[in-house]
Amino acid sequence: MDNGLNNQNPYINQNTQQVNAQLPNNMNVPGYMLWLLLGIAQILTLCCCNCITFIFGILTVVFACIANNQFKQGNIIMSTSNIKKAKIFNILGWLLIVVNFVINLLLGVFEYIGNYITQ
Q1: Using CA atoms, how far apart are residues 64 and 20, in angstroms rounded to an integer?
Q2: What is the predicted pLDDT for the residue at 83?
């Protein structure tokens, strides 16, 4: 009994082939370079932030590179999905950097106030 789930849909294949025929071979996925550079910047901020942002930076770079390779192979759906993953990891990493900065700033202010009161 074949339910048709294992067969490939000819309409999806036809649409994918039409889209792939319109793409030049040397084209990169839109937004690829932005998230790649922001991911590298997160990796470089390891010295002033925590290691979790480093991990998010690595994940951003990995997913951006995978998305670009999939886009060049013609798999636009998976490429878009991986760019979204790279975007999410990058935004989470930068939010952690900001939260870490605010916490350190507040701790510094409270330490200054505590030292001022005790003197």
Answers
A1: 20
A2: 92
